């Protein structure tokens, strides 16, 4: 199956396990409205049980799993089956996040199954060396985020961003790069994209704000602005 | 929150990753009709993305996750959040299945969170020694199934069934015992319950049959019959 | 094979990965001299490659692995074979430490293999509930240590010590209890044993001191004193 | 530290957990004699507790761990510390064997630590895609072995050998390639090297033979012969 094409710069709203159910849906509706208003590609992740409702109640978001396994239909109690995601309308999945590290062979299998079924792969790397090696597996999107910064609100340094962008593109030119660590303002968004990233996104920079929808609006406004400038 | 009370003998339909989406829903509708007809408590597991539809489209089934993690709302990318299951209408979860083994401390945490939120726990053990130890954590249901028999279609021996039933009850009298390995006919169901089990269930004994609904009907008819005899 | 009998109160010197090679040997020689002088049972752990030298160059220590797997001779690349430990003179092993958590079934297997080969099992638990459940597997020694305190230098509260001691003994009267978190002075040793523990021990409370041998001497002197009082 | 240079074609004797203690030492003495006689570079793996004796009692073997972790001296109970291996005379380590799969980030860390300390890295891959990606981390040796063939006595097909050799060299020209699956005769050795591999080796093809030393002699004789032809 063909995968959905991604327009850059894109954004990923990743509420991890902070939001679920009605609260997740509420933020998704906000993201959906902003995605339409600014004509941006926005990924939105959620708990697996919430993904069907997120799909049903939004129109513009790319509904995204936070993890997927590489099994085929059959045994595999408690594992996340790629075919089930596809039938539920899920179009993308994170893989190998630092909080859900995968053995290398399992990661490679899950990526192969995603390619087979048309699921966009968003693969996480910590160091420049890791990003370069994982780029050999040609993920659709490579998330570059120093593990030590996750959840800290500190942004990656410009050197790290430049080095990982370059490392990924030199190995896999069609892989899009997402610079993620510590994005919590419109300015962070602009800095990440200006560093050469194809996309950016946030977790605590959004969900830990008093008004997550307003925080998201600030970031997507900035993303839209930098996109317009680039034309 | 209070947990749903379980009437014995009960049955668990566990399609693992064999069925998903519309096919899972189809078997669930069949199970729902049989649960009503025979007035039996029937658990039905599924892929997490399928659980909301299973909940919405059935009335009598106890919708059950195949795995759950013990985290609290917050970080924890890709982990299964208990609160999200509850809000989606999930009432029970398997834990520590041989195909999704959990570190002991993680299992204990997930059980504590389930108890806190009113989720029924269905915990898997392999040997008599394991069943006795895990019974100390007072699961609602203990699944006794020799790992070496999973998926083989061979039923556990009567000695194993008697020994695990006794081991669990001696430690945790209120824990219900599910004898599971290799159940694929009405006779297997009768033998498991007569061995002293509170419930039984199946995977490949159902989903690998040419007509899974008919296979399930044979098993639930047998369960109903033995229940009537017991009155 | 019969296991070595343990005299209480005992002590465990656990240098984790802080010490290795000659430095580990140096502390082991100090511990060996103190074990002889005070006629105490002292366990000493180390990197697996260091255990043969620790065995060869000491006379009184119980040489202890920090982890062991439950496999049998055969395949199992990179796993720690129980038979190999026995032939190397290792008499005990930690299992399920919070820094090396084991799936429950693997832990049960490793304990069964240790019992078969006469290796003393030192099994770690975090909460009272975990300690009670693991006690059903009858470890030789249960280490009770709140995971949140490991490496902090904070000692467990008296309530925790009393509750875990009681929980373990009520289920498995012959299992010895080791209270471990944050022991770094002779006073800590006395408090742990007075709480009802059969033994105690330390890591950073010893190896992070300017003079680890002196720190150990202070602790073993205290242990000896409380042992004498108990006569 | 500088790593030991490896002369090709080389051989790896990998007894996994089949042999330990005196039996492992016996085979190592045989391998040592053959390594000297044929002037070949021979790696020999073993249980960690056996490595010091293997080192002490042989002169020509490259003593090799079956797994190593990427930690630094400090906490990390039960993990294999690189510094401890070095001090014990270990010169190489397998990493990411299918029977001891590592999360990708942990593998990258362990490889970085090995490079820092002069330990040769022998990294395992299953598919061509995996081999190509892991080659980006520049292991000293890449083991190409279809996981499905491990322990079966079936050799990899010539296509697989050619494709993995090419994949590795195109990404990392200095990485040596070890073709491993199912080597159990001198002919298998010749076929693997003629396929373009830099080295080969065996487990069950050696240890499961009635006379492991004779089996090894047959293989090393073949390796020597093909080396002579290549001059």
From TrEMBL, chains A, B, C, D:
InterPro entries: Aldolase_TIM, TIM_sf, Triosephosphate_isomerase. Pfam families: TIM. One of its GO terms (molecular function) is triose-phosphate isomerase activity. The keyword Signal does not apply. The keyword Isomerase applies. PROSITE patterns: TIM_2. Keywords: Isomerase. This is Triose-phosphate isomerase. It comes from Butyricicoccus pullicaecorum.
């Amino acid at each position: 199956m063909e995968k959905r094409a991604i327009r850059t710069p894109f954004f990923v709203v990743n509420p991890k396990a902070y939001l679920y159910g009605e609260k997740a849906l509420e933020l998704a509706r906000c993201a959906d409205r902003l995605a339409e208003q600014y004509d941006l590609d926005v990924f939105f992740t959620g708990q697996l049980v919430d993904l069907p409702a997120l799909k049903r109640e939004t129109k513009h978001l790319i509904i995204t799993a936070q993890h997927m396994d590489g099994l085929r239909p059959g045994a595999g109690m408690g594992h996340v089956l790629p075919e089930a995601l596809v039938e539920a309308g899920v179009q993308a999945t994170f893989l190998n996040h630092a909080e859900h590290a995968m053995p290398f062979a399992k990661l490679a299998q899950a990526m192969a199954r995603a390619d087979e079924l048309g699921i966009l792969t968003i693969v996480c790397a910590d160091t420049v060396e890791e990003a370069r090696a994982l780029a050999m597996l040609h993920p659709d999107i490579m998330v570059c985020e120093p593990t030590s910064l996750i959840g800290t609100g500190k942004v990656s340094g410009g050197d790290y961003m430049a080095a990982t962008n370059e490392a990924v593109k030199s190995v896999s030119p069609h892989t899009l790069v997402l610079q993620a660590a510590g994005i919590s303002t419109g300015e962070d968004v602009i800095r990440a994209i200006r560093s050469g990233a194809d996309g950016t996104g946030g977790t605590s920079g959004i969900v830990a704000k008093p008004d997550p929808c307003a925080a998201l609006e600030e970031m997507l406004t900035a993303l839209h602005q930098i996109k317009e400038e680039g034309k």
